[in-house]
Design goal:
With 314 residues, the chain is mainly α. It has two domains: 3-152, no CATH class; 178-296, no CATH class. Helices cover 68% and strands 0% of the residues. It is globular.
């Protein structure tokens, strides 16, 4: 069976199984190569192999937890580069392709367009991994997959505009300047609201910022968040609730300064809209180019097309 059929097969609702073991064999081969020319690289490969062996004793390999343990274990000991990136690509490419294909199925996207989005997604993941420089890394499967979702959403936005323009040309109609002006105004207003949400989020303490990202963007439960942030499970709910209250107050003050929002800028309206209050970050990162994935992993939010605030990797 061809690669294209495996990745983007005829059933767009089907998600390929997560196969980590085959990619892991290739990674382990790279880690066992004899190289006496660089003692530092050799030491990192040995340390990475020990991390992988420890991870395999703790979790099942063909699971998200297995993939995350291998990836983060290698990063923790400073092993990165082509071999690790090849491992990530081999594990995720089928899942990314099927997921992007499902999102684009309604607009009849070609295999080339889907493949191009997968390639662009992997480039973003490569930049994220290359910049990861922490004592303990916690990159998650969901975060990497979400990067592909953002690429597909951007593609759909552009495709819908193209379809509308094509229909106008075929019908001989002159593009409506007023409609285009309204669209541009709406896009700018949405970007302003998104930036206000990001600014309100930035004013929170580090634990609160990360807790809201975990629950609203990644959709994790309180138990997972407690383990990730080193909190007692019983405390996570209180942290999230206090963070949302503080964010809403800060955001309401900023939105009152934006013209054209009416009573949306009021504190009472924000509190009353439970859907908005509980999913504010998820909605914000879907505006425009989305959020910078590298900074997102560190608990910071800014638009992906804005200057990156990530520290330069050593």
């Amino acid at each position: 069976m061809s690669t294209a059929i495996d990745v983007y097969g005829r059933t767009p609702t089907h998600s390929p199984a997560l196969k980590v073991d085959h990619a892991l064999n290739h990674l382990l081969f790279a880690l066992t190569r004899v190289d006496t020319g660089d003692e530092v690289a050799l030491a990192r490969r040995r340390a990475a192999r020990r991390q992988i062996q420890a991870a395999l004793r703790a979790v099942e390999v063909n699971t998200r937890a297995g993939f995350e343990a291998i990836l983060n274990g290698c990063l923790d000991v400073g092993f990165r580069g082509p071999s690790l990136l090849a491992f990530v690509f081999e594990v995720l490419s089928d899942r990314l392709g099927a997921r992007i294909r499902r999102r684009l199925y309604s607009v009849g996207a070609s295999l080339d367009e889907v493949s191009d989005l997968v390639s662009k997604t992997m480039e973003s993941i490569q930049r994220l991994i290359s910049r990861a420089n922490r004592a303990r890394h916690t990159l998650r499967y969901e975060l990497l997959i979400t990067i592909g979702d953002h690429r597909a959403i951007d593609f759909l936005r552009r495709r819908r505009l193209e379809y509308r323009d094509d229909l106008e040309r075929l019908s001989g109609a002159t593009p409506d300047p007023e409609r285009r002006y309204q669209q541009a105004q709406a896009a700018r207003q949405a970007a302003r609201v998104r930036d206000a949400i990001f600014a309100a989020h930035a004013g929170l303490d580090g634990i609160s910022r990360r807790a809201l990202i975990e629950v609203e963007i990644h959709g994790r439960g309180y138990g997972e968040i407690a383990e990730c942030l080193g909190l007692a499970p019983s405390n996570v709910g209180n942290v999230v609730r206090r963070a949302r209250v503080a964010r809403t107050r800060a955001l309401a003050a900023q939105l009152r300064q934006l013209e054209g929002l009416g009573d949306v800028g009021g504190y009472g309206a924000l509190v009353a809209d439970d859907h908005l209050r509980r999913g504010m970050l998820r909605l914000a990162v879907e505006v425009g180019a989305g959020a910078c994935a590298c900074c997102l992993a560190r608990g910071h939010l800014h638009a992906a097309d804005a200057p990156c605030a990530c520290p330069t990797p050593r």
